[in-house]
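Our working data are protein records whose layout never changes between entries. Instead of coordinates, the fold is spelled out as a row of discrete tokens. Here is such a record, shown just as it appears in the course material:
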Amino acid sequence: MNWDDLRIFLAVARAGQILGAARRLGLNHATVSRRISALEEAMATKLFHRQTTGSELTEAGERFLEIAERIEREMNEARAAVSHDDGSVQGTVRIGAPDGFGVAFLAPRLGKLTARHPGLSVQLVPVPRSFSLSRHEADIAITVERPSEGRLVAGKLVDYELRLYASRKYADEHGLPANPGQLSDHRIVGYVPDLAISPSLDYGAEFWPGWQAGFQISSALGQIEAVRAGSGIGILHSFIARGLQDLVAVDTIAPIRRAYWLVYHESVRTLRHVQTAAAFINELVDQERGIFV
């Protein structure tokens, strides 16, 4: 057994399929399949159930995954310990984030990170979905809940505020509700409940028990644009909406709070480029904490 075999095993385990792993590794699909078969033969056990829909770890494969990740972590630590350290940060880091935080906050600011570290490549994936850190879909994830399972390292970034907003044009034409019950007299823009990436984001009833949006959009930024266009009243991120002059807050109805968490898998704890990016995001939030609440 050699490190390349372990590296290929980890890629297949994380991608959930041989083809996806081959793409990530830059190898031929047949090569990856052959190397996995050779590894299974050397181990005298089956590591994957190969199906048309992908490759699922067997019970033995799950146990071997823990060992392989420990070896990977130790290899990274050894490489860092013996390599010539010129102080530069090299590598590619992928950051997954909700679209509101990812596009409105991170995207305009992460350029400073690559300017500071020219050898660092940053991939920002700001989409309304959850990321599997164990499968290395991202190196760092910004989540709206602290994870309770898996070998993950999580730290709270910041609390943020969600408030009801309308466009100035809508407010001039229809007025604004004086209390939650009056929302029944207004058009409502909201999220798609069954596509919420976390139960904590199904928060409409916290504003009004009868919450029912006639216009539902799965993207937080899409909701902002619909409200700006006068489609109705919506629940928006205050750190974004506050800076848009064509929006007005419904101050008669109290806002709610949620939190962002920065999370990464413990296997990347010793990787300088990942930790550099994580520290930079924390630095950004600390500098502008006041915009969130």
